């Protein structure tokens, strides 16, 4: 396997990372907003998966085109909820306070849970823990947020590293919160980064062909 970095909007991403196995960069994109006809980029995103896991758990969609998959929220729900190890690497392009990022995540996760009648006291407590983890941090350019989603036990380890400091970590163990955190990035038409969804759809279509 080549070790050259993959450039995602001028941000370098490793083509593979090693967790309990080798995971490949299968989706990439950005979060951005257009202000007065100018594109402002906030983060670059890389989604890492094991292609063999994709074949095993998403075989039902074999033969679909990237365009088909990009418009299929059921496919992305299956990806998010499937017993597939996933790592989502988020690199900061535009500096932001950690508290602002935390509130965006909190609002999305809470709204998704409430819509499915799953937002109880346990979820609220766990979500407050996640928001608290980001609260005091400052996301300088090139800071990295890593979400490591385990395949089977519904646990997510969040990592944050910036400017040569050691990575800080937080373990999230509420299955409902972990599930909706995945869907924040991986929920098709409701995902936070449409460009990442399109990229993933194209890559996964090729893997499933």
UniProtKB/TrEMBL annotation:
Location of the Chalcone isomerase domain: 10-206
Taxonomic superkingdom: Eukaryota
Family matches, as SUPFAM superfamilies: Chalcone isomerase
Pfam family, one: Chalcone
InterPro entries named in the record: Chalcone_isomerase, Chalcone_isomerase_3-sand, Chalcone_isomerase_bundle_sf, Chalcone_isomerase_sf, CHI3-like
Protein family according to the UniProt entry: Belongs to the chalcone isomerase family.
Protein name, entry field: Chalcone-flavonone isomerase family protein
């Amino acid at each position: 396997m080549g070790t050259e970095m993959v450039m995602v909007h001028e941000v370098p991403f490793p083509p593979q990372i090693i967790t309990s196995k080798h995971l490949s960069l299968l989706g990439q994109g950005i979060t951005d907003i257009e202000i007065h006809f100018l594109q402002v980029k906030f983060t670059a995103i890389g989604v890492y998966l094991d292609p063999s896991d994709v074949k095993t758990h998403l075989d039902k969609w074999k033969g679909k085109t990237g365009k088909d998959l990009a418009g299929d929220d059921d496919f992305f729900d299956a990806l998010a909820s499937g017993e597939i190890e996933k790592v989502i690497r988020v690199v900061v392009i535009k500096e932001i306070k950690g508290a602002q990022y935390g509130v965006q995540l909190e609002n999305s996760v809470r709204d998704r849970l409430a819509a499915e009648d799953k937002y109880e006291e346990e979820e609220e407590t766990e979500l407050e823990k996640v928001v608290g983890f980001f609260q005091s941090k400052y996301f300088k350019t090139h800071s990295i947020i890593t979400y490591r989603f385990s395949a089977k036990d519904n646990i997510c380890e969040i990592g944050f590293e910036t400017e040569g400091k050691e990575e800080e970590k937080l373990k999230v163990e509420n299955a409902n919160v972990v599930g909706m955190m995945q869907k924040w990035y991986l929920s098709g038409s409701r995902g936070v980064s449409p460009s990442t969804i399109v990229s993933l759809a194209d890559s996964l279509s090729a893997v499933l062909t």
